[in-house]
């Protein structure tokens, strides 16, 4: 008990010290250590990111949550009345005002990379559009996995296995190994194009509906989710006007679909030349002679 009391006092003193000196003690990205930085440094990095991407519009201190809840439920009701949604789907997707909470932005320092860049995370587990986003993702992600299973991967182990198989008959002195990273993939996809790429995938699979939801309804719901990402950061509210939220499941599927159609000609050239191409979201890996 005495040890617990001393530990509690130590934590309180540490918290007070960090707050009083404008320091930020933050968990790091992809490592087991913590990063100690100044609040000014975090703010500077955030400003640089927002200026570079031009993806967010500052709304000041006016909370957009009440209006967003109202608009979300009205939009769903309009779709129900127009028979785009069944009563069961409508009730499933509706927002309960008492349970809704706006997303918030935070940064994870990448201490494993030179210069310690920051990973941007928008946490919106109770955001008004999260139910729609999750529902759509459950319908769409298995379809993406179906069309892209040859060119996408989910683990380093699978990459090593495929490289090993390819190397058995193809490895030479002049073999080239290349890795490519897409910068700011989630935020750089135009919102309209991101929604249209879902339709492109569904047309590619020649589908008219999924899980009792017509394609037009899927497109309308996807558009609403993409256009209504709001978050709080350092006391200011923001509206994301470009790309999708970093914490949204639907954004991940849209980004994957966008990359699938973007990379098709590249994949064709590499495979025709006997090479190997694999991608995990925004990281690409290829081998070619």
From TrEMBL:
Organism per entry: Rotaria magnacalcarata
Protein name: Reverse transcriptase domain-containing protein
InterPro entries recorded: RT_dom (IPR000477)
Domain of life: Eukaryota
Domain Reverse transcriptase: 89-289
PROSITE patterns the record matches: RT_POL (PS50878)
């Amino acid at each position: 008990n005495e040890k617990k009391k001393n530990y509690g006092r130590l934590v309180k003193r540490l918290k007070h010290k960090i707050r009083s000196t404008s320091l930020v003690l933050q968990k790091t990205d992809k490592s087991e250590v913590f990063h100690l930085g100044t609040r000014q440094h975090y703010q500077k990095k955030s400003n640089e990111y927002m200026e570079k991407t031009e993806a967010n519009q500052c709304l000041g201190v006016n909370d957009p949550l009440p209006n967003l809840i109202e608009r979300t439920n009205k939009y769903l009701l309009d779709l129900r009345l127009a028979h785009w949604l069944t009563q069961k789907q409508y009730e499933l997707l509706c927002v309960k005002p008492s349970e809704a909470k706006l997303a918030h932005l935070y940064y994870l320092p990448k201490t494993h990379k030179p210069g310690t860049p920051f990973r941007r995370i928008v946490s919106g587990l109770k955001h008004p559009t999260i139910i729609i986003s999750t529902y759509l993702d459950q319908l769409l992600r298995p379809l993406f996995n179906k069309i892209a299973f040859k060119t996408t991967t989910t683990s380093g182990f699978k990459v090593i296995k495929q490289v090993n198989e390819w190397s058995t008959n193809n490895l030479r002195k002049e073999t080239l190994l290349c890795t490519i990273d897409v910068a700011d993939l989630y935020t750089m996809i135009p919102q309209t194009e991101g929604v249209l790429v879902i339709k492109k995938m569904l047309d590619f699979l020649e589908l008219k509906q999924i899980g009792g939801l017509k394609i037009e309804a899927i497109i309308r719901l996807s558009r609403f989710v993409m256009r209504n990402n709001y978050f709080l950061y350092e006391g200011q509210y923001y509206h994301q006007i470009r790309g999708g939220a970093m914490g949204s499941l639907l954004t991940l599927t849209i980004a994957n679909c966008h990359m699938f159609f973007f990379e098709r000609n590249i994949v064709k050239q590499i495979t025709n030349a006997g090479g190997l191409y694999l991608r995990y979201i925004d990281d690409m890996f290829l081998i070619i002679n």
